[in-house]
Structure formats: structure tokens, C-alpha cells
């Protein structure tokens, strides 16, 4: 089973620029969590802080009894081996073929012999749908394949915590659906604790058990996915709708004057006095409906993390907002991600939606 990661009062700055402050959350063992947030809000900085590559000025990150912020380098280094990190671009060595790239951590950090290394590498390549591609160079494959190679490399050391930095960046929607399924299948196979950083709403809607969002240097909540997906917090709503109106602006947050003008326009539109342009602003995307969470592909085990998540949510239920409770009841009525099925099948069709036929092991 994966390991819980406890973040307490974390604050990170670069010089005078505060990236985020007083962030506290727990990544529950073996569950899948997503961290959303507009560009530049410090999601990657957050991931790097979890594994001790960046040092926040305040707070703690507790992993298996070690504080990844304040403990000695020796102790931090030992616990870092529990993590597998999937970088945005795969971070592969351009001159090495995929086999050697993926074998690299084993050759560098273990005393395993080549036949054992070969067995592990080929197994992980198969797991991410890259079987038979060992001899290809990173420059000869697609961006999606590079990501999956990066994921295979993150898996060779048997990590118990997997951090994925924007697994969707640069991928088309179909490849993004495949990588979403791959991440859920991976969680079903190895029960690792997972944190995925993304702005992708499809991933946020279909993959995680828990969602948080970083915005304006704060964590805007973190908890069961239904809480954030039904949140009425303006920044969350705007983000989920992918709309221009709202507190999130082009570069960072909008200034107060722009926000006030938008709110005045919204009131004029509501009273029927708005201009045509203002009316067009109001027709931007609607907030997406909550869709069922992805389930493992047929033949894979049930996600133990989803089962534990459901038990946790049961305890939390009375404390959750009404809309989140309703969303949870609806999801469960449709057959929740944790519910075992006699034939081990998914119950949805691999996308978390109805009417599509994506299969596990598909090519991103
Ligand atoms: N080593 C560093 N030194 C100084 N500033 C940094 C460093 N690393 C990141 N930053 C700054 O921290 C802020 C957050 O960066 P980060 O890459 O974490 O954002 P992000 O939310 O992951 O963005 P995106 O979604 O666009 O990838 C940015 O303003 C960035 O310039």
C-alpha cells in the first residue's frame, strides 16, 4: 500500500515573491489526488517541495516519519527513494534509447544484475504500453510516448508515492483520455499514493479521488473530488467553466477594477440592460457536469485506494457541503469507483463517460 504524505503549514517564497503560504493537506495512502491551479500558481514548486528538491521556509512534509523539509539530507535522500516522479516532458536522455533511459535508475541506484534489470524494464514498459519500443530514441517517438517512457522510468524503483507533473501537457484529448486510464490502471495494480498536477479539466473530472486547487498563493481547499467539483468559490467555478469572467486573469489574478467592471456588467446582463458584447461574455462555457470516476480496465484488480476513500468519505459525509453530498449519492447510485464487480470489469467504458469505447493500454 502507498504511503500517506502529510503537509503542514507549508510556505514557499523565492526572494520577495511568495509562491504559496500555509498549505496543509494530507495525501491519503493509495488514493489518487489532483492539484489544480492556474498557470504560475506554484504547482510544480509544490511537487518539488514534497520530495525535498526545494526547501520551503516554513512547515513540514511528513513521509514515513521523515520531514522532507527539515530533516537531514541523509534521511531525506533515503525517503526520496519512495517517490516516483513523472516530469512534464519525460526528462529523458536524448542520446539513450528507451530501454537504457528506463533502466538508468536501476543501474545507478541498485546492484541488480542485467538480466534482472531487463526483466523489470520490460515489465514496466509493457505496463505503460511501450512493449517493443526499447530501441527507439526519445527524438523518434511522440510526446505521449515520451511521457509514458518517463512514467515507466518512475516505476522501476517500485515507488510508493507517484507524482505526475502535467501528464496531459502537449497531448490531444484522446491521448489525454488514454493517459488518464493508464494512471487509474497503475493505481489499481500497485496501490501507490498518487498526486497529479494539471490544469486539465478532463483529468480532474475523471481521475482523482481528491482534488485541491492552488490560487492566489493559497490552497483553495483539498478534499473528496465532489467538494471541489461542486464548489461555489468564484475562482474554482471560473476555472471549472474555463471562462474569462471571474477573478482569474490573463497573467495572474485580475485587478480589482477589472473584476468590479465584470460584476457590474453581469448585473446589467441579468437586468436585461447589457450590451451585445457583454451578452456574448455571458455565454461562455457552462460548468461541466460531474461524471463518474474512471475505474480500472477489465481484468485488473479493484482499486484498494478507492475502497479506502469511500470509507473515509462515509465518515466525512455529514461535514461536507450539501451539493457535494448530493453528488456523492448520485455517483454511488450509478456504481461508484470503489464498488467491487463480480466480473472485475469497469462499469464505465474507460473514459468515465458513457458512449465511448477507450480501452486500457491504449497509445498516448
Ligand atoms: N527555482 C526558482 N527560482 C525562482 N523562481 C522560481 C523557481 N521555480 C519556480 N519559480 C517561480 O515560481 C512560480 C510558480 O512556478 P511553477 O512552475 O511552480 O508554476 P505552475 O503552477 O507549475 O505553472 P504551470 O502550470 O504554468 O506549469 C513562477 O512564478 C516561477 O517563475
The residue ranges in which pLDDT falls below 50 over 5 or more consecutive positions are: 339-364
How does the major sheet shape up? 6 strands, mixed
Class based on secondary structure composition and strand pairing:
alpha/beta
CATH-defined topology of the domain at 5-82 and 159-229: Rossmann fold
What is the succession of H and E elements? EEEHEEHEHHHEHEHEEHHHHHH
What's the overall average pLDDT, rounded? 82
Would you report the number of β strands? 10
Distance between the termini: 27 Å
How do the strands line up in the largest sheet? 6-7-8-3-9-10
Q: What are the bound molecules?
A: adenosine-5'-triphosphate
> What is the CA-based Rg, rounded?
21 Å
Which CATH architecture of the domain at 5-82 and 159-229 would you pick? 3-Layer(aba) Sandwich
User: What's the total helix number?
Assistant: 13
Backbone shape: globular
CATH homology group of the domain at 5-82 and 159-229: P-loop containing nucleotide triphosphate hydrolases
Provide a compact summary of the structure.
The protein has 364 residues and is an alpha/beta fold. Helices cover 38% and strands 17% of the residues.
What descriptive keywords fit this protein?
364 residues; alpha/beta; Rossmann fold; binds adenosine-5'-triphosphate
Amino acid at each position: 500500500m502507498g504511503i500517506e504524505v502529510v503537509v503542514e503549514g507549508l510556505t514557499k517564497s523565492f526572494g520577495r515573491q511568495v509562491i504559496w503560504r500555509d498549505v496543509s493537506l494530507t495525501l491519503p495512502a493509495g488514493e489518487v489526488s489532483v492539484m489544480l491551479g492556474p498557470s504560475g500558481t506554484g504547482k510544480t514548486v509544490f511537487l518539488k517541495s514534497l520530495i525535498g528538491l526545494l526547501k520551503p521556509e516554513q512547515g513540514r512534509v511528513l513521509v514515513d516519519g521523515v520531514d522532507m523539509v527539515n530533516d537531514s539530507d541523509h534521511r531525506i535522500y533515503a525517503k526520496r527513494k519512495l517517490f516516483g516522479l513523472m516530469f512534464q516532458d519525460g526528462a529523458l536522455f536524448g542520446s539513450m534509447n528507451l530501454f537504457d533511459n528506463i533502466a538508468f535508475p536501476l543501474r545507478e541506484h541498485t546492484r541488480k544484475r542485467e538480466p534482472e534489470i531487463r526483466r523489470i524494464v520490460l515489465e514496466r514498459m509493457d505496463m505503460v504500453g511501450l512493449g517493443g519500443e526499447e530501441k527507439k530514441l526519445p527524438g523518434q517517438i511522440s510526446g505521449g510516448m515520451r511521457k509514458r517512457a518517463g512514467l515507466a522510468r518512475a516505476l522501476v524503483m517500485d515507488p510508493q508515492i507517484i507524482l505526475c507533473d502535467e501528464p496531459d501537457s502537449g497531448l490531444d484529448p484522446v491521448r489525454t483520455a488514454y493517459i488518464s486510464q493508464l494512471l487509474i490502471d497503475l493505481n489499481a495494480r500497485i496501490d501507490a499514493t498518487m498526486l497529479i498536477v494539471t490544469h486539465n479539466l478532463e483529468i480532474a473530472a475523471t481521475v482523482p479521488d481528491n482534488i485541491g486547487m492552488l490560487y492566489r498563493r493559497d490552497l483553495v481547499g483539498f478534499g473528496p473530488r465532489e467538494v471541489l467539483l461542486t464548489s461555489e468559490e468564484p475562482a474554482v467555478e471560473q476555472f471549472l467553466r474555463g471562462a474569462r469572467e471571474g477573478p482569474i486573469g490573463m497573467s495572474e489574478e485580475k485587478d480589482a477594477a477589472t473584476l468590479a467592471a465584470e460584476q457590474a456588467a453581469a448585473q446589467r446582463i441579468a437586468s436585461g440592460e447589457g450590451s451585445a458584447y457583454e451578452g456574448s461574455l455571458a455565454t461562455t462555457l457552462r460548468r461541466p457536469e460531474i461524471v463518474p470516476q474512471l475505474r480500472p480496465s477489465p481484468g485488473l484488480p479493484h482499486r484498494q485506494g478507492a475502497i479506502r476513500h469511500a470509507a473515509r468519505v462515509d465518515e466525512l459525509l455529514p461535514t461536507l457541503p450539501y451539493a457535494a453530498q448530493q453528488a456523492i449519492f448520485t455517483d454511488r447510485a450509478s456504481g461508484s469507483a470503489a464498488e467491487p464487480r463480480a466480473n472485475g470489469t469497469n462499469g464505465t467504458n474507460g473514459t468515465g463517460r458513457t458512449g465511448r469505447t477507450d480501452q486500457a493500454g491504449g497509445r498516448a
